[in-house]
Amino acid sequence: MATRLPPPGPLPAGQHPGCDTSGMLLVHRIFRWLYRELPVLVRDVAPGDTARSAVVGRYAHLDVFALHLHHETEDLALWDRLVARDPACALHVGRMRAQHAEVARHLDRVEPQIDPWVTTADPALRDALATDVERVRDALAGHLREEEDDVLPVAGALLSQEEWEWMERHTRAELQSHRKELGKDLLALQLGLLLASVPADEREEWFRTNVPAPVRVLYLLLMKRRYDHAMRELYPGRPVPAMA
């Protein structure tokens, strides 16, 4: 489990303001890609093709889980802390909370539709599901842009590196705790998508700098094969679309 989150307020003793928030840009790039691609994958499933709907449906569940977890982690770690340290943040924080609630409402419409569609591959269910995923995509687009413009610079100035890294540890711990229901390739997907989100000419350096050596070895020996298999399963016989 992640270490306990300290209460909002002044910086904990021994910590200093200033943190590197650039990793959040990669995470946002992944979510833009996931929710751009998911409605396309859903709409491409032929009526009655339950083998294909099962494949796409599994990743739809993962996408919903990942976005819920991402927003819940931000809710825990960011908003109260930012307002406590700079009350002028209250307006932007209020918008972030409202946008998270809007995205959550859309996700709550999407999730219960997945299994009925997977079971039947019914075209009417398919189209309704894809439409509601597109609503998530559209709500997410504005939210991520505003968060990058209005929140990340302030968080980078007010939070300590230790506080920022708590979010990464919490995310890893939650993913680990749900591996049984989400699949053994979950961590391979997480790292593979992070690598794919880095521009190709920076990817090798990012991998060497940001991933501990034992994890790099594990990824190259095992996890990369699992990630590549997942991408072939999602995009059989064609290239995986690049992240913008």
List keywords for this structure.
244 residues; mainly alpha; Four Helix Bundle (Hemerythrin (Met), subunit A); 77% helix
Please characterize this protein's 3D structure.
The chain is mostly helical and 244 residues long. It contains ten helices and no strands. The protein has helices at 22-43, 50-77, 79-85, 90-120, 123-158, 161-177, 179-182, 186-197, 203-210, 213-234. The longest helix is centred in the middle third of the chain and has 36 residues, at 123-158. It is globular, with a radius of gyration of 19 Å. The chain starts with 21 loop residues before the first helix and ends in a 10-residue tail after the last helix.
Tell me the CATH topology of the largest domain.
Answer: Four Helix Bundle (Hemerythrin (Met), subunit A)
Number of domains: 2
Tell me how many strands there are.
0
CATH homologous superfamily descriptor of the largest domain: nmb1532 protein domain like
- Stretches where pLDDT is under 50 for at least 5 consecutive residues are none
SSE string = HHHHHHHHHH
**What assembly state would you assign to the polypeptide chains in this entry?**
single chain
Roughly what fraction of the amino acids lie in strands?
Answer: under 5%
Specify the structural class.
mainly alpha
Domain Hemerythrin-like: 26-154
Protein name: Hemerythrin domain-containing protein
